[in-house]
Prior knowledge:
Elements: E1 2-3, H1 6-11, H2 13-20, E2 25-29, E3 32-35, E4 38-46, E5 49-54, E6 62-65, H3 69-84
Antiparallel strand pairs: 1-4, 2-3, 3-4, 4-5, 5-6
Amino acid sequence: MKHAGSATLGSLEALLAKIRDQPGLIEKRPGIFYVKAKAYLHFHEDPAGIFADVRLSGDEFERFQVNTRHEQESLFRLVAKNRAA
């Protein structure tokens, strides 16, 4: 599964704009976010769709589908809740 390209990231622009406003997140490259020096969130694309990998706790990433507006809103709520904790 490859990292999301610019066209895919463009389709996620509304979600990315909201994520960029979250305190403590640094977008080092388009669609790749860090907390301090540790990778936190990035996106992948493959024939099955678009996915986000998020490190909500610990060292392991959790994968979420973000193909629909509902899935994107769910991901944003998780990120916002996690960043507020």
